[in-house]
Amino acid sequence: MSRNSIFFLTDYGRRDGFVAACHGVMMSIAPDVRVVDLTHDVPPQDVRHGAVVLAQTLPYLPPCVVVGVVDPGVGSERRGIAVVAGDHVLVGPDNGLLPWAAAAAGGVAEAVELVSPKYRLAGEAMTFHGRDIFAPAAAHVAVGVPVSRLGPAVGAGDLVRLPEPKVRARPGVLETEVHVVDHFGNVALAAGPDDLAASGVGAGQRASIVRGGPAGPDSATEVVVGRVFADVAPGEMLLYVDSHRHVALAVNHGSAAARLGVEPGDQVTIRVLAP
């Protein structure tokens, strides 16, 4: 099955020629395939951030190949893999970057290790697998090469996975983790709408946010529970469900991450305030 698009995500940035080199390799192998930059602004070495972006974006993409390269272990013993999930093929390092996206596409149907020399560049560099291994593999798949030809099968259960975020909901309290912080400083939490409902937190209420556990050391920040940014005045904080179905925190015309001093992986406790 050929696919006419390759979507490309990395932490390479745009200052150097890394992205262009990968584009050149893919275009040389698959000149009629469109290469679309998903983003190259993943924070350096932040595998979790890249995994979240892929998982959030993949359900909205047409059948395609996705190359993800956030690879602090490049040159080590970590595998390069290709994963079939739904109508998509995901190519990248076996470091937890791809499984959340695969799950969002219906789960891993097939996975292989990228070892066949026929589908990588000759004389590969130990420190640039994006150009020499992942880009060529993606381009060959895009023009119809079966994934099974890229290397031996890997069991879905053998893929490296990131730790699942912790969420605990009980009446009046929701304990969760910061999942990702976006460009605007909005803070997406690991909890979803069902967790919010289980805690009894609903629109129109007020809640307190504490960074840390239930007895965390930080002072509480009061927020309004709403649906859209305009539910609070400029400069005020809102708790809402975002477009990816995550419970989230935002400051209208500001940065919730800066206000709270949080980053991905931090624990946050939300507590309903009495009317």
Automatic annotation (TrEMBL):
Q: Name the domain of life.
A: Bacteria
Q: Which UniProt keywords apply?
A: S-adenosyl-L-methionine
| UniProt keyword S-adenosyl-L-methionine present | yes
Q: Where is the S-adenosyl-l-methionine hydroxide adenosyltransferase C-terminal domain?
A: 177-269
Per UniProt, residues of the S-adenosyl-l-methionine hydroxide adenosyltransferase N-terminal domain are: 6-151
In terms of InterPro entries, this protein maps to: SAM_HAT_C (IPR046470), SAM_HAT_N (IPR046469), SAM_OH_AdoTrfase (IPR002747), SAM_OH_AdoTrfase_C_sf (IPR023227), SAM_OH_AdoTrfase_N_sf (IPR023228)
Task: Return any one Pfam family short name.
Answer: SAM_HAT_C
- Which family, according to the similarity comment? Belongs to the SAM hydrolase / SAM-dependent halogenase family.
**Name this protein carries in UniProt:** SAM-dependent chlorinase/fluorinase
Species the sequence originates in:
Phytoactinopolyspora mesophila
